[in-house]
Write a structure and sequence with these properties.
By secondary structure, the protein is mostly helical. The chain folds into 4 domains: 17-154, 3-Layer(aba) Sandwich (Rossmann fold); 160-250; 358-554, Tetratricopeptide repeat domain (Serine Threonine Protein Phosphatase 5, Tetratricopeptide repeat, Alpha Horseshoe), CATH 1.25.40.10; 568-696, no CATH class. It is built from 31 helices and 9 strands. The protein has helices at 17-29, 43-54, 76-83, 94-102, 118-131, 160-175, 183-192, 197-204, 212-227, 235-250, 253-262, 271-278, 285-297, 316-328, 332-353, 359-380, 387-396, 398-403, 407-419, 428-444, 448-465, 468-484, 488-505, 510-525, 529-546, 550-565, 569-585, 589-605, 609-626, 638-664, 668-676; strands at residues 32-36, 62-66, 107-112, 135-141, 150-154, 302-306, 309-313, 700-701, 711-712. The strands form 3 sheets. It has a 5-stranded parallel β-sheet with strand order 2-3-4-1-5, sandwiched between helices. A two-stranded antiparallel ribbon has the order 6-7.
Length: 716
């Protein structure tokens, strides 16, 4: 995990030296510091700059959690888990996950945009600060949290010197050689705008078209207009609304319309989304790019880079003003539905493209779109008529919940969607999909009771309605549950039946291939190693043709298992190294921890008992995030038990324990690096006194039921 997820600054930070010093001092003295102030006063920019400056104080880094796009209070803890880069597959609540992770870490957590969720945020942060003595929280909002021990820094507008410096610099960026030179009008403009940074930046964005004197004249007219009708507003609030409203008046009709319609987005958005959601007869799609460019030039929209490419974002204050105009145009509901339709389409595209060479791109795009997907789900759950859309969307995102380490949030939305009562029963297919996805997620979370309930309901309803595909998915996941429960004959029977149904329906995707890998596991555990290898070799070939990597990793795991059993540890290490790389990229902790445990056994087979023990120690904390170690399965526990026995015999009790503790202390990224490291010395290491290294695996060939020449694995 990176030490910091703070965004890079796109332009130079100007002024605020005294405020930076004061904030840095408060962070040193208090464990909770909240920076408050009016909108547009520069709270976030100051906090991010200060957090960047002081990050060396924190051994475990600085993390930013942005809450402004959240609407569901239950997602506050999920957002903090996300900001810390944590993946947790268990049934533990996100609060428990946070407390456990932060308990001994010296970390600065920056929480921005909490004011609309202040009660939930205050309660959570109070709990974290009590349970995590080395945690420091730096919060940003328009009001204090009112938590015991909180220090509050009220950020006031810039003094004249800083305001002039900021305006001059932004004007030079905006107007280039036409930047203002006369200091008098600039100082007057800064005074008229009360030194509010957002207002200054908006004014600077107008200088390519207007002189400073013209800006002043228009602001004077606008102030007089507002003073006549809004005397109850706070002066600085009125100043900011004046600056935003004046900027709005100077926009063309197309720019105003786009500004209003952009307010439906939550978090970052891309050009294609804007072209679909915001276009119409008054704003043709081919005009959107140019109009968006104008809003960007006027500092009304910001451009940022993301893992999925360039994205745009509208500042909260500017977006709120646009939302007022959208409501005045009576377009709010229509735009929200267009927004929902786009993101449902995006989810559908991502589900299809997950089975393609664009898997990594899909994962990144879904990550960036998550705030907007949440907004779409929220809209779908507001009315009974739209509940089927929520069920469909929550089910369509199965690849993200299961494949990208988002089980906890996936469970949240699936439970909500399935718990809502739809207006009618004409969209049963959407409910069936959500049911089998819920069953899948519950299995991975180690919740067999919920899994069986969801899958049983799905299977029964699918048979009643003639939905053969949904029935196949329910059967498949029941087989997966049998696999993890050590009932190999039943797992083989159910998964085999599902695969046959998939073939009859013409279904081929990552789920289908995963079923084939799971069938291979069931056969391998029953002694049919040759059959397992044949199944996974076919999966690997299809994955290579389609560019699929997520399922490929699981096939590599089985092939590595087979290679090690056949006495080929070097071959097993090569296969498992690729498996670890893929699983880590997709945040798939289940696949990752299984592969690292098997790699530990590879190290033992190669004669490096100490490194084997280190890798076993590194895997232990991962199981805390996955759930029940090895799912409680004796079959999946085989490599761990054999490795522990071999390494323990070679190192002795104290030596094994010391190496195991070394592995436990590794971070996830460090554990992955350790697992992928090349052997430093092919000779035996870690065997004091010349003890004999464990012999390579040898396969005991024993007939198994139904197989004339089956191979029984010695790993059980």
């Amino acid at each position: 995990m990176r030490r910091s997820n703070l965004p890079a600054e796109l332009n130079r930070f100007v002024g605020r030296a005294a405020e930076q010093d004061e904030l840095a001092r408060l962070i040193e003295e208090f464990r909770l510091v909240t920076v408050v102030g009016v909108g547009g006063v520069g709270k976030t920019r100051l906090v991010l700059r200060t957090a960047t400056d002081v990050q060396k104080r924190y051994a475990d880094g600085v993390r930013l959690a942005e809450l402004s796009a959240l609407r569901d209070p239950e997602l506050v803890a999920h957002a903090l888990v996300e900001s810390l880069g944590l993946t947790d597959h268990t049934l533990r609540g996100p609060r428990e996950v946070l407390t456990e992770h932060l308990a001994e870490r010296r970390l600065l957590l920056v929480v921005d945009g909490f004011e609309h969720l202040v009660e939930e945020c205050a309660e959570l942060l109070r709990e974290l600060l009590r349970g995590c003595p080395r945690l420091t929280v730096l919060a940003v909002g328009r009001r204090p949290l009112r938590v015991d021990g909180e220090a509050v820094l009220t950020l006031v507008p810039m003094d004249e010197a800083d305001a002039v410096a900021l305006f001059t610099e932004r004007a030079a960026e905006s107007a280039g050689r036409h930047a203002p030179a006369a200091p008098g009008p600039v100082r007057e403009l800064c005074r008229r705008l009360d030194g509010i940074p957002l207002a200054l930046e908006l004014a600077a964005g107008r200088l390519p078209l207007l002189s400073v004197e013209q800006v002043l004249q228009r602001l004077d007219d606008r102030f007089r207009l507002l003073d006549g009708g809004r005397r109850g507003a706070l002066p600085r609030h009125r100043t900011l609304r004046t600056a935003i409203g004046w900027s709005h008046e100077l926009c063309t009709p197309e720019e105003r319309l786009l500004w209003a319609r952009l307010s439906v987005f939550a978090g970052p958005f891309d050009l294609e989304a804007v072209e679909y959601v915001c276009s119409g007869p008054e704003l043709p799609a081919e005009r959107v790019l140019d109009v968006l460019g104008e809003l960007l030039a006027q500092s009304l929209v910001a451009r940022e880079e993301s893992a999925a490419g360039p994205r745009y974002r509208m500042l909260g204050t500017v977006g709120a003003y646009g939302a007022e105009w959208l409501a005045a145009l009576d377009e709010t509901e229509r735009m929200r539905r267009r927004h929902r339709d786009w993101y449902m389409g995006l989810a559908t595209w991502c589900e299809l493209e997950w089975f393609s060479p664009r898997q990594a791109e899909v994962a990144a795009a879904t990550d960036v779109a998550l705030p907007n997907l949440r907004a779409a789900l929220e809209l779908c759950l507001e009315s009974a008529e739209d509940v089927p859309f929520a069920q469909h969307l929550a089910g369509t995102l199965w690849f993200y919940w299961a494949g990208c380490g988002r089980l906890s949030e996936g469970r949240h939305w699936l439970d909500r969607a399935l718990g809502a009562v739809p207006a009618g029963a004409e969209h049963e297919d959407a409910r069936l999909k959500a049911l089998w996805v819920l069953g899948y997620v519950a299995i991975l979370q180690g919740d067999p009771t919920a899994a069986v309930a969801a899958l049983h309901e799905c299977g029964e309803q699918a048979r009643a309605t003639g939905n053969a595909l949904a029935e196949a998915y329910a059967t498949h996941r029941m087989g997966c549950l049998a696999l993890l429960s050590d009932d190999m004959p039943r797992a083989e029977e159910l998964i085999g039946r599902a695969l046959e149904a998939y073939r009859e329906q013409g279904e081929l995707n990552s789920n289908v291939l995963m079923g084939q890998v799971e069938l291979a596991m069931a056969r391998a555990f029953q002694g049919d190693l040759e059959g397992a290898v044949a199944l996974c070799a076919e999966v690997r070939e299809i994955c290579e043709e389609r560019g699929e990597r997520w399922t490929r990793a699981y096939a590599l795991y089985v092939l590595g298992y087979a290679a090690l059993t056949e006495g080929e540890p070097a071959r097993a290490r090569e296969l498992l190294a690729e498996c670890v790389t893929i699983d880590h990229a997709f945040h798939d902790l289940v696949g990752l921890v299984l592969a690292i445990e098997l790699l530990a056994l590879v190290r033992a087979a190669e004669g490096d008992a100490r490194e084997a023990a280190v890798l076993q120690g590194a895997a232990a904390p991962m199981w805390d995030s996955v759930g029940l170690p090895l799912f409680g399965s004796g079959h999946f526990n085989g490599p761990r038990a054999l490795c522990e026995r071999q390494a323990g015999e070679a190192l002795g009790g104290e030596g094994y324990a010391a190496a195991f503790r070394e592995g436990q202390a590794l971070s996830l990224d460090e554990a992955v690096d350790r697992a992928l490291a090349e052997r430093r010395d092919p000779a035996m290491r870690g065997f004091p006194g010349g003890a004999t290294a464990p012999r390579p695996f040898r396969t005991a060939r024993t007939p198994a039921p139904g197989h004339a020449e089956a191979r029984r694995l010695p790993l059980r």
